[in-house]
Backbone:
């Protein structure tokens, strides 16, 4: 066997300076270097799981000169990646260095002919198992964690690999990862299926960009022409192609945009309010983990401009009532970002914002109002004001809240009229006084009617000699302390039967403990607290409530209501 030098000498490149430390020079150059911990990080921590290591090996196969196909086999025991490219001459110094020095290699970040860029993926590969890299007549073996004591890995450990003569000549390159057990899931884990699924997504459009086919566990990976992705979409969609990118967009904002760098999946972005795919023509500048785009990427900036224009065109085909909250937020952000943008004019007449009645209104209509009000969705009287022609915007809607935020930001071009206090305006117009009993109980919805009738049964069972009504107020309920109790929507905290029945039990006892009016600022002093506690802890009350609940469970609400003669 041919003698080969060890590979440790290729891992470092140290120089020394013979100048004494006492003779500094103003012309001295200080070069930033990295210590041993960086190499350890690049090997052990840069990649999350086995799929990252396989991805790196597959990318190397795709980038290999002359490669037309990369075969991938994944099993719980080992992963094998084989390409039919030119391979690497491991007999040469350059070939050995490219496969042993982190950061070394023929790839450049500005090179659009290859999809890799850092030259550090080999570190991820040797961290996941004992590795054999075989090309031509030679194989390079690593056992980074020193877990194998026989065969081709018997005499290697750590970052020192061993070159061995191969059993026969191999065109291209084969990478075998004999998995470390603690680096992979259990053999019967669902994660193996996820690994295959994730890898298929990773290389979905590589063949369309590189003409290299990828086959994983016997099945080709090729999603075809990116422009055909949305051809049969039931949603508004469009396709567009520029010198930098292929866009296939559809109005499925919850799905997000899958971003592919030269056919290789990178990330999914949801801030555009669109679904579909973006496939760059050439490499994007990616971060270290290859899962996001670095700031300052010129190609992405041009793609981003094309995306925004395509989004504007696609939104023009989406009716206002179909726009999601995410899309409406995207649109308001665009309207505020640039006063000279066409969307500033285009979208002012789109009904993007929510009124207190849950209907929509446009910025153009908002700006035409003399004054406007802001209200959380639950604020009483707001909907009545809208019904009388006032503009009261519901800030529980995310896009409407964003409008409010932007309207108070001096750096944006969004302006709105002066505001009024919704509560004061409602009271002055007589649409809300704070406590309103609903006279026509037929107007209550089904849940409210059930709450009211159950509260009336409770009053009878608990010996509360007051009439029970339904009303509107910020409080859970109120009473005059003598003749009536009025419950409201906020008396119940859940639509689950067991919860709201107990809610009403406590609310009825709470109001029964009030011997004077509980409107405005009721007294909750020592006498009230003592009375309320005694009512809650009274064994007869507890027993009556428990029997009533069981009766409802056994017979149903309607049967109980009929038995007690409780109607509306």
Residues:
């Amino acid at each position: 066997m041919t003698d080969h030098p060890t590979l440790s000498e290729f891992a470092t490149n140290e120089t020394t300076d013979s100048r004494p430390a006492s003779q500094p020079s103003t012309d001295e150059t200080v070069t930033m270097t990295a210590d041993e911990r960086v190499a350890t990080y690049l090997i052990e921590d840069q990649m999350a799981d086995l799929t990252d290591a396989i991805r790196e090996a597959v990318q190397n196969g795709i980038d290999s000169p002359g490669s037309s196909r990369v075969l991938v086999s994944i099993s719980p025991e080992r992963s094998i990646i084989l390409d039919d490219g030119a391979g690497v001459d491991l007999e040469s110094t350059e070939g050995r260095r490219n496969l042993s020095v982190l950061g070394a290699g023929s790839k450049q970040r500005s090179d659009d002919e290859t999809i890799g860029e850092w030259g550090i993926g080999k570190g991820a590969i040797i961290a996941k198992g004992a590795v054999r890299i075989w090309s031509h007549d030679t194989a390079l073996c690593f056992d980074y964690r020193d877990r194998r004591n026989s065969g081709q890995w018997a005499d290697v450990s750590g970052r020192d690999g061993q070159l061995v003569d191969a059993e026969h000549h191999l065109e291209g390159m084969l990478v075998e990862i004999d998995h470390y057990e603690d680096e992979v899931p259990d053999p019967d884990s669902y994660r193996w299926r996820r690994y295959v699924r994730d890898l298929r997504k990773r290389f979905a459009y590589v063949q369309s960009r590189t003409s290299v086919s990828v086959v994983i566990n016997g099945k080709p990976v090729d999603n075809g022409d990116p422009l055909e992705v949305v051809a049969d979409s039931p949603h508004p969609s469009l396709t567009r192609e520029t010198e930098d990118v292929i866009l296939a967009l559809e109005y499925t904002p919850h799905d997000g945009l899958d971003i592919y760098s030269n056919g290789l999946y990178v990330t999914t972005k949801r801030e555009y309010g669109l679904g579909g795919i973006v496939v760059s023509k050439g490499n994007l500048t990616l971060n270290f983990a290859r899962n996001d785009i670095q700031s300052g990427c010129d190609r992405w900036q041009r793609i981003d401009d094309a995306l925004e224009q395509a989004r504007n065109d696609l939104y023009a085909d989406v009716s206002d009532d179909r726009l999601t909250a995410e899309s409406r937020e995207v649109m308001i952000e665009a309207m505020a970002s640039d006063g000279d943008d066409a969307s500033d004019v285009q979208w002012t007449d789109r009904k993007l914002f929510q009124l207190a009645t849950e209907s929509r209104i446009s910025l153009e209509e908002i700006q035409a109002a003399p004054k406007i009000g802001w209200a959380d969705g639950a604020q009483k009287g707001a909907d009545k004001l809208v019904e009388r022609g006032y503009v009261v915007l519901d800030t529980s809607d995310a896009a409407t809240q964003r409008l409010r935020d932007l309207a108070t930001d001096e750096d944006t071009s969004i302006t709105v009229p002066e505001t009024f206090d919704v509560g004061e305006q409602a009271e002055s117009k007589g649409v809300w006084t704070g406590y309103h009993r609903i006279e026509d109980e037929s107007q209550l919805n089904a849940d409210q009617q059930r709450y009211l009738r159950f509260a009336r049964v409770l009053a009878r069972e608990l010996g509360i000699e007051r009439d029970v009504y339904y009303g509107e107020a910020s409080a859970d309920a109120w009473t005059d302390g003598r003749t009536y109790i009025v419950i409201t929507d906020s008396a119940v905290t859940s639509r689950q039967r067991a919860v709201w029945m107990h809610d009403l039990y406590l609310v009825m006892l709470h109001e029964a403990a009030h011997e004077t009016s509980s409107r405005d600022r009721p007294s909750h002093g020592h006498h009230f607290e003592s009375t309320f506690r005694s009512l809650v802890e009274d064994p007869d009350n507890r027993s009556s409530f428990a029997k009533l609940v069981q009766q409802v469970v056994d017979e149903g609400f309607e049967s109980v209501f009929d038995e007690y003669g409780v109607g509306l």
User: Anything to note?
Assistant: The two ends are 99 Å apart (CA to CA). The chain is about 35% helix and 20% strand.
